Amino acid sequence: KKRLLQTLKGKENITLDGQKVMLYANVGNIKDLGIALQNDAGGIGLFRSEFIYLGQDHYPTEEEQFQIYKTVAETMAGRRVIIRTLDIGADKQCDYFELDKEDNPAMGLRAIRICLTRPEIFKTQLRALFRASVYGNINIMYPMIISVDEVRQIKAIVEEVKAELAEQGIEYGNPAQGIMIETPASVMMSRELAEEVDFFSIGTNDLTQYTLAIDRQNSKLDKFFDSHHPAVLRMIQMTVENAHKAGIWCGICGELGADQALTKDFLAMGVDELSVSPGSILPLRKIILETDVEAYKKSKQTK
Ligand code: PEP
Ligand code: MG
């Protein structure tokens, strides 16, 4: 069976009726890039940058980050690399951030909220990303967004960063910028948010947690954690529709993207990209190549 999958390498991700999908890889560090390429990833759909912060005892400097992002961009050789900005807090604690202990960290000071509270940390990462984007196809993605106002605040900080780099005569690129849709608020605001950004990527791990009000880390709740809950599926559908109305693409980078029981449904919804662990890429390609999306939609209508 493994051998059969190997024969799918180099093939396009296209359905029987001609719908194309991007199959990208989720990676947690530089070492994973080789595995992503071996599995024929068209790009990196989620590069979790927090490992850079978690792996040490001080704030990573601009230069340290620049070298890592540059390596990623060059290794992926022109393929799109979506680097998510800092997502510390909640489950991913980091001592030198000296964050207060919170009763409810999943709903606490985390991710973009830290970046907007402490812009100096955010700006260091943005400078490194804008500089590294000269060396490949880097896209930047912001996590845990809940409002248009946050996106505008981010844009203002980005403008400052660009102006400072320009003034210092430092070369920088023009990366596409998108957001994660992983809070119910961002789903409900997706029509307006789509006007502000270049792409959406749905983080189904957090989106399911916040929609069902079930802690994703509490295994005692597993029997209630229905990852196929229609509320979550409807939210995905709504997000994709609003993305397309504004002319931007929409992917899924949470675990659900790799769920083979849902691949046909994601195709029917028009999901443009699935970013999954490298080992899931070829199995998903196989399903995509065997699917007739229009026929599948009709078969669902008659059910
Ligand atoms: C998600 O929430 O679905 C996601 C992809 O991000 P993380 O799992 O890192 O929170
Ligand atoms: Mg998340």
From TrEMBL:
Its cofactor is Mg(2+). Its EC number is 2.7.3.9. The keyword Cytoplasm applies. Its main location: cytoplasm. Keywords: Coiled coil, Cytoplasm, Kinase, Magnesium, Metal-binding, Phosphotransferase system, Sugar transport, Transferase, Transport. It is found in: Cytoplasm. The keyword Cell inner membrane does not apply. Residues 5-291 form the PEP-utilising enzyme C-terminal domain. Belongs to the PEP-utilizing enzyme family. General (non sugar-specific) component of the phosphoenolpyruvate-dependent sugar phosphotransferase system (sugar PTS). This major carbohydrate active-transport system catalyzes the phosphorylation of incoming sugar substrates concomitantly with their translocation across the cell membrane. Enzyme I transfers the phosphoryl group from phosphoenolpyruvate (PEP) to the phosphoryl carrier protein (HPr). This is Phosphoenolpyruvate-protein phosphotransferase.
